[in-house]
Amino acid sequence: KETVVSGIRPTGKLHLGNYFGAVTNFVKMQHEYNCYFFIADLHSLTTHPTPQDLHGHVKNVLVEYLACGLDPEATTIYIQSDVPEVTELYLYLNMNAYMGELERSTSFKDKVRSQPDNVNAGLLTYPSLMAADILIHKATKVPVGKDQEQHLEMTRTFGNRFNRLYNNEYFPEPFAFNYAANLVKVPGLDGKGKMGKSEGDANCIYLADSPEIIRKKVAKAVTDGGPTQDNQEKPESVQNLFELMKIVSTPDTVTHFDDLYNKQAIRYGDFKKQLAEDMIIFNSPIRERIEEISKDSVYLRQVARHGAMKARDSAHKTIKEVREIIGFKPF
Ligand code: TYM
Question: What predicted TM-score, i.e. pTM, was given to this entire model?
Fold first, then answer.
């Protein structure tokens, strides 16, 4: 069985982008592969969360993983900071990750722009930590959204460089994965880019959002202008809402509104109402499970402890071999 690794940063609640870019694949893959799904709490330290927020958000992701259908018996679910072998491998990989390539990474450049007062070394070396997450289990498949593609490329670079340096075909090459041939980028509600926490709460539909909140957010979504000619190309904001509809609604519903659009007969009020109701139908069962599972601290503690043990077994095996390859050997 091939090995699979993926993680999500605990920055708050999971949204539809996280779900369709990543988690829905986790749920399917857990029965087909040897899977490790974790909560990337070390990665989230780059933005200096308070201890309370950090702890709460880690619990949130754990609860939401389970609510989405991750099965702790079928797969290994763990918290990144419970596996210190990851940080050890991170240190080794940093020794041959170069300033130039780290500075050129798109995510780093974005952060320099969005948080100019906090350009820390953790941000710069974020790709080596992510490579350590993946290589520590020698994974080959990594279910992620489109925004992580470059990080996967860097992971392959670091793994291959380690192999060359020690003349040892040790790490396999991992690739980004989605069951739907292409990697996914779920758009947000603001008429522009992707759905994402840093783009603001109003831009995101969270799995835990109540029906009222979903109706409100969708009603406020941007829809620039309407068609002025038949069969006109849609403006980005409208196109984005159609993309979201494709994800949560039936193909018939999408075709129905597409036809109306092409005939210049679409009423955005009706269109948004339908979109909101279909989102509610999609997220309601998950939301209910989130509420239930979050009450069960005993179960959550047990899942985290069990996952940490399984993840450390695998990580320890790798780190022991890596130490030998590097030349750390007992006298
Ligand atoms: P993060 O926490 O930003 O996002 C978690 C996952 O959700 C996907 N995603 C999206 N997919 C499609 N459309 C969107 N709008 C959207 N928004 C988020 C992300 O692509 C990701 O798969 N660096 C990672 C976390 C990480 C990781 C790893 C992932 C750390 N180590 C090792 C895989 C393997 C991140 O910040 O994802």
Answer: 0.96
